[in-house]
Each structure stands twice: as structure tokens, then as C-alpha cells.
Design goal:
Layout lengths: L2 H11 L11 E5 L2 E4 L4 E4 L2 H4 L8 H13 L10 H12 L5 E5 L2 H19 L6 E5 L8 H6 L3 H4 L9 E4 L4 H7 L4 E6 L15 H12 L2 E5 L23 E4 L10 E5 L1 H4 L15 H16 L3 H22 L3 E7 L2 E6 L4 H9 L2 E2 L1 E3 L3 E4 L7 H16 L2
Parallel strand pairs: 3-13, 5-6, 5-7, 7-8, 8-9
Antiparallel strand pairs: 1-2, 2-3, 4-10, 9-10, 11-12, 12-15, 14-15
Helix pairs in contact: 3-11, 4-11, 12-14
This protein binds pyridoxal-5'-phosphate.
């Protein structure tokens, strides 16, 4: 089908929930994607922090091919080997004792909300159900995850929301202290607010939250959906703060492109789920788990990919900082590892479009923040190519 026909069919047959670019992407390899007209792009979006190993990583492709020929799906009423192996790998390389699998970030957050409430009611045996979340956060689109997302503009038209949430400003420890009460069961927070505009909190923020949780019998639930799987230069972003959470929600980069989410938790918290308290038909599906395991093993075994992220991020931030010096309309550049934002004093939409014309996919969030989340295998040369392109686009303003 020719591109214009596909775009027309898309408009006709797909619900209008995204302001999509008029690009039909048909192939990906490493840091590159290709559209239906044969144009090549360097991908600084990675499916929104999903393709951490790049597109179609050979080890993931082979794992998928093998698993697809063997067994694609069985019910969670039975065991399946890839799910067991993935749980074991995640537990071996993290603070966690147990994993629960689902199909997306939103579902991992729903599971975290349910687990925290069950923990308050069934383990602590107290009337604890309230969860403290942060203004500007993003935790997903189902009603529980949407309520946890403290952004009124995303709530509009979906009220009434779920009771039992308290919102406080991000990076404000005193506000969290003031919000804790006898009904609180957990604090839910992103180590860096990604959708919220790449907001990096002060060093020690997670540590202070950990202390509040310990003092008040609360669970620390970390949303590592965007920051996890090496994105910030550590396997998980909380490692930068030298703390461990009780629960971490994972998705995005976990499956290297296959849809999968996970909740990993310490034993005291995980025991709150018992047979029948939560579940998912597709959660822990052998195909998705085989891809996630191949991706995870690659990230863990490769001694270059994650260690290189910090230096790549520094290089990228340095180049963006030079552009900030040159162009007064650049308000800020910030980020950690390869989760980077550049805030402009005008909407970034046209810059995104101009980048596409030049062969680069970039993202814009919160209207004015250009966001860069390339595969972790991006090179300094590719980053430099984007920096030169941005310079050229900015010079024309
Ligand atoms: N939490 C965070 C931090 C996210 O960035 C996202 C998605 O952007 C989600 C949750 C929701 O994940 P999903 O879109 O897989 O449901």
C-alpha cells in the first residue's frame, strides 16, 4: 500500500488518541528505523525508552524465533519456563525476592497500587490504603494509574477518579512528611519524571523518601518504567541514590520491544498477593518473557552497554549545553544518562518536525521540552550528528 493510502486508512480506522507524525515505520535495525518511502532515521525516541538495545537486536530476534516455534502462550494456571527464568534473573540482579508479570507499564502500576493496599490491609492489618504521589508524575492511563498520575489535564473528563491518593509537589520532602497520616500505605514516585519534562530531583531525594517510609511503615514504590533497564547509566535509577525500594514497576525497556511489564518486590511486600488476588491472562507470556530474558541477559552480560551510558549522556548534555549558550530561547538542559530534556521557551512541535525532515526522530513532552531517549547503543558520532542538525534548525529561528 502506498504511504498516503495507509495514512488515510489510519485516520479512518484508528481511534484518535495520538497526535501522530505522518510516518509509517516499517523496519528497524540498531539505532535506525526506515519508513514506507525508504527514508532512514536515527531514532532518539526508541519507542519511548523501549528499544534500549536498539531495533531487532539479533539475540532477542533469535530468542523470539525459537520460542515462537515452541510455545507462544499458556495459561498462568500452569508454569512456563521463560517466565520462571526471567523472574529468577530479575531477582538475582535486584533487591527483589519475587516478580509479577503483566503486559505494560500501566498494568505494573495497577499491580503496585493493589499490592500496596493489600499490604496495608492484610499484612499490617491496619486501615491503610492511601498512596502519596507527586505532582507532574506520569504512571499510566488506566483509572488507578491515571489517578496516581497527579496531572489534572490528563484527568479531565474521566472523573470520578479512584479515592485514596494524595498529591504533593515533586522533590519536596517536607510536603511528603506533612501528607503522611494513619491511612497512608505507600509513596509512589519516579526517580526522574520522564513524561513530566525530564525533571531530575535533588540528590538524596529518594533516600529521604526511603527514611520517611521506614519511619512510618510505608512502602516505597518506584516507577522505574522509563528510568529502568540501564536508561540512566545504572540498571535501575534508584542505584544512583544507594537505596532500595520495596517495589519497582518495570516495563518499556524490559521487553526490548515485546509488550511486557513487571512488578518486582521484596518478600515482606510480595506476600500480600495470594492466589486469586491478582492476575493477567497474558502476563508472563512465554514469548514476551523469552524476549525480555534475552534482552536482560544481554544488558547484564555486556560490559560496555550500561557502563557507556553515563559518558554518552555527559557528551550529549555537554553538546546541548553549548546550544543553550548560543540560543537564548533554550531555557534548560537536564537529564541523567540517556534520558535527556531540553526545555525551550516555545512549543517544540516544529523542531520535532524539522528533525524528522533531517532524518532524526526526537520527542517533545509537556509541550516545550524536547526529549531524547536513544537506544543505549547510540554512538557519540550519532549524537553529534543530531547536535549539528539542532544547531542548524535553531539558527533559522
Ligand atoms: N510510568 C512511567 C514513568 C511511564 O513513562 C509510562 C509511559 O510512558 C507509564 C508508567 C505507562 O506505561 P505504559 O504506556 O506501558 O502503560
Amino acid at each position: 500500500m502506498i504511504t498516503n493510502d495507509m495514512l488515510a486508512d489510519s485516520q479512518k480506522y484508528i481511534m484518535n488518541t495520538y497526535a501522530r507524525q505522518p510516518l509509517v515505520l516499517i523496519k528497524g535495525r540498531g539505532t535506525r528505523v526506515f519508513d514506507s518511502d525508504g527514508r532512514e532515521y536515527i531514532d532518539f525516541v526508541s519507542g519511548v525508552a523501549v528499544n534500549n538495545l536498539g531495533h531487532c537486536h539479533p539475540r532477542v530476534v533469535v530468542a523470539l524465533q525459537k520460542q515462537a516455534q515452541r510455545l507462544m502462550h499458556v495459561s498462568n494456571h500452569y508454569q512456563n519456563e521463560p517466565q520462571i527464568n526471567l523472574a529468577k534473573a530479575l531477582v538475582t540482579h535486584s533487591f527483589a525476592d519475587k516478580a509479577f508479570f503483566c503486559n505494560s507499564g500501566t498494568e505494573a502500576i495497577e499491580a503496585a497500587i493493589k499490592l500496596a493496599r493489600r499490604y496495608g490491609r492484610e499484612i499490617l492489618k491496619e486501615d491503610r490504603y492511601e498512596i502519596i504521589t507527586m505532582r507532574g508524575s506520569f504512571h499510566g492511563r488506566t483509572l488507578g494509574a491515571l489517578t496516581a498520575t497527579a496531572q489534572e489535564r490528563l484527568h479531565k473528563g474521566f472523573e470520578p477518579l479512584l479515592p485514596g491518593f494524595q498529591y504533593v509537589p515533586y522533590n519536596d520532602i517536607a510536603a511528603v512528611e506533612a501528607a503522611v497520616n494513619d491511612h497512608s500505605c505507600a509513596i509512589l514516585v519516579e526517580p526522574i519524571q520522564g513524561e513530566g519534562g525530564v525533571i531530575v530531583p535533588s540528590a538524596g531525594y529518594l533516600r529521604a523518601l526511603r527514611e520517611i517510609c521506614d519511619r512510618n511503615k510505608l512502602l516505597l514504590l518506584l516507577d522505574e518504567i522509563q528510568t529502568g533497564m540501564g536508561r540512566t547509566g545504572k540498571l535501575f535509577a534508584f542505584e544512583h541514590d544507594g537505596i532500595v525500594p520495596d517495589v519497582a514497576a518495570l516495563a518499556k525497556g524490559l521487553g526490548a520491544g515485546m509488550p511486557i511489564g513487571a512488578l518486582i518486590a521484596n518478600e515482606k511486600t510480595a506476600q500480600a498477593f495470594t492466589p486469586g488476588s491478582h492476575g493477567s491472562t497474558f502476563g508472563g507470556n512465554p514469548l514476551a518473557c523469552a524476549a525480555a530474558l534475552a534482552s536482560f541477559e544481554t544488558l547484564i552480560e555486556d560490559d560496555i552497554i550500561i557502563p557507556a551510558v553515563e559518558q554518552l549522556g555527559r557528551h550529549f548534555l555537554g553538546g546541548l549545553a553549548n546550544l543553550k549558550k548560543k540560543y537564548s530561547f533554550v531555557r534548560d538542559v537536564r537529564g541523567k544518562g540517556l534520558l535527556i530534556g531540553m526545555e525551550l521557551d516555545f512549543p517544540g512541535k516544529d523542531v520535532v518536525t524539522a528533525c524528522i525532515k533531517e532524518g532524526f526522530l526526537i520527542n517533545c513532552t509537556m509541550e516545550t521540552v524536547l526529549r531524547f531517549m536513544p537506544p543505549l547503543i547510540i554512538t557519540e558520532q550519532e549524537i553529534d550528528q543530531l547536535l549539528v542538525t539542532l544547531d542548524g534548525i535553531f539558527a533559522k529561528r
